[in-house]
Write a structure and sequence with these properties.
Layout lengths: L5 E2 L8 H18 L1 E2 L5 H9 L3 E3 L4 E3 L2 H10 L5 E2 L8 E2 L4 E2 L9 E3 L6 E3 L2 H13 L5 E3 L12 H12 L3 E3 L5 H15 L2 H6 L2
Parallel strand pairs: 10-11
Antiparallel strand pairs: 1-7, 2-4, 3-4, 5-6, 8-9
Helix pairs in contact: 4-5, 5-6
């Protein structure tokens, strides 16, 4: 795998003891304070409870016991690679590397022809992804704008198709609902070749 990104791990303002203090404090917060959640996540809360989390449904808070967090963290893979379409822009998160990318959710853009701000379109998203694809110093494409010219029920399909068509680099974006997730998954599987290939190199 060709090495991308910048050398990381050089800036270390915290000592090992400082890092451990932050870690232990975060475990205490997760266990005692918990995290609030929005309505509509009942299935997710059921799943978390089945794994050992504790939920206060009246207060809409979920709590994660220290042992649960540490057990699940120990199960995480040591190496995670965010794959690109062409294999030349894979992002290996196990190395001490720093990767730069886009991001945001802009709904306005400065039109280069008129010089005025206007609502963002699907074509803006496509052009921005094409630009990122050509820039060696930008390593991944996180959808930087929200197309305002497409119907909401067609949003997820169009966003992922547009991004994956315009750049071979790793693409990130959110989805609006479960159906949108499955549409994005179908598109990604087509790009990868099939679902098995996508699973092997997500």
């Amino acid at each position: 795998m060709e090495q991308k990104g910048l050398t990381g791990g050089l800036y270390q303002p915290l000592s090992s003891a400082d890092i451990e203090t932050i870690h232990q404090t975060s475990l205490t917060i997760l266990e005692n304070t918990g995290i609030s959640y929005e309505s509509g996540l009942e299935e997710t809360i059921d799943m978390l409870e089945a794994q050992g989390a504790k939920a206060d449904r009246e207060r809409a808070r979920v709590f994660f016991p220290k042992d649960l967090v540490e057990t699940q963290a120990a199960r995480a893979p040591e190496r995670v690679v965010l794959f690109s379409q062409d294999g030349r822009n894979d992002l290996d998160l196990a190395q001490h590397r720093v990767y730069l990318g886009t991001g945001g959710a802009a709904i306005k853009i400065l039109d280069l022809e008129s010089g005025r701000a206007r609502s963002t379109t699907l074509n803006d998203l496509y052009q921005l992804a094409r630009l990122v694809d050509a820039l060696d110093n930008i390593h991944f494409f996180l959808r930087p704008c929200i197309p305002t010219d497409i119907p909401e029920d067609e949003y997820d399909t169009n966003v992922f198709y547009t991004c994956l068509k315009a750049t071979g680099k790793h693409v990130m974006a959110g989805v609006n609902d479960v159906a949108g997730f499955h549409k994005a998954l179908d598109i990604a599987a087509m790009v990868a070749g099939d679902i098995a290939k996508l699973r092997n190199k997500p």
